[in-house]
């Protein structure tokens, strides 16, 4: 069973055919999907998707680039939303210094607040970090994130930093980028990482793998990513599917019974 640990099916890119696409995922071997919030409105839509699809889980959080919309009032709503059944993580949260806005101070403040929320609720975190390697690591250490647990989404940093996150017990979200020809650094990281640290993710509708690069991505494209990981790790494709699914369940604290129940409902 393939588990997509990170997708954005609330995105407008799916407005035309969301229902037929999502209903067809189980028959295409997709046993679980975590729809990841990135703004207040996408968090609201994530909760709606959970009601509709029993094999969906949710993450509630505000992406660093959207943190300017947060207020005490909306943060209080976020806390309530994160307590909904089948919300399994706080995310995606972090720092993104690629964009000028919002300023670093705003991004850091809400990163702190959302990490504290994860600690309060006992949820793992989904970390988005772009061009902000050292501030991200420092803030995660301040919050003793090794006790929260979580995943570094779309890992894009060095092998040396991957070793730091490995020591902290983090998982690594590996998606379409690993199939890109110029992704040598990521190939090196995946080759190094033990298979029990890797989870599959699409970041749909973004980052479609080769040979579909540039098109709208969805969970049905995960086999291309698993195949590339199998080559880099020199293990079978089946092994990658099986182990990454086990890892996803550990990452999001999905116990066997609960997972089986939601999957059977999806049949
Ligand atoms: Ni994402």
Q: Can you describe what's shown?
A:
The protein has 267 residues and is of the alpha/beta class. The protein has a single domain (2-265), classed as TIM Barrel. The protein has helices spanning 18-23, 40-52, 72-82, 104-121, 133-142, 145-148, 159-167, 184-192, 222-233, 237-251, 256-266; strands spanning 2-7, 30-36, 56-60, 87-96, 125-130, 150-152, 171-174, 198-200. It has an eight-stranded parallel β-sheet with strand order 1-2-3-4-5-6-7-8. The structure holds nickel (II) ion. Nickel (II) ion binds next to loops. Nickel (II) ion binds at residues 6, 8, 36, 92, 153, 203.
List keywords for this structure.
267 residues; alpha/beta; TIM Barrel; 16% strand; globular; binds nickel (II) ion
């Amino acid at each position: 069973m393939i588990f997509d640990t990170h997708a954005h099916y609330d995105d407008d890119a799916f407005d035309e055919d969301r229902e037929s696409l999502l209903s067809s995922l189980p028959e295409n071997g997709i046993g679980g999907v975590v729809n990841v919030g990135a703004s207040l409105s996408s968090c609201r839509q994530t909760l709606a998707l959970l009601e509709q699809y029993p094999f969906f889980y949710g993450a509630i959080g505000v992406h660093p680039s959207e943190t300017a919309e947060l207020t005490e009032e909306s943060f209080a709503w976020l806390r309530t939303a994160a307590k909904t059944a089948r919300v399994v993580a706080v995310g995606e949260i972090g720092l993104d210094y690629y964009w000028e806005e919002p300023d670093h101070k705003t991004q850091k403040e809400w990163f702190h607040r959302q990490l504290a929320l994860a600690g309060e609720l006992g949820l793992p975190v989904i970390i988005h970090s772009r061009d902000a390697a050292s501030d991200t690591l420092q803030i995660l250490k301040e919050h003793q994130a090794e006790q929260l647990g979580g995943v570094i989404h779309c890992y894009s940093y060095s092998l040396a930093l991957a070793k730091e996150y490995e020591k902290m017990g983090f998982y690594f979200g590996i998606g379409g980028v690993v199939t890109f020809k110029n992704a040598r650094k990521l190939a090196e990281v995946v080759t190094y990482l033990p298979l029990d640290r890797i989870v599959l993710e699409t970041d749909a509708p973004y980052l479609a793998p080769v040979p579909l690069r540039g098109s709208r991505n969805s969970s049905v494209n995960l086999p291309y990513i698993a195949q590339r990981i199998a080559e880099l790790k020199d293990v079978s494709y089946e092994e990658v599917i099986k182990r990454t699914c086990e890892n996803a369940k550990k990452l999001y604290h999905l116990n066997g019974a609960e997972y089986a129940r939601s999957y059977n409902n999806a049949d």
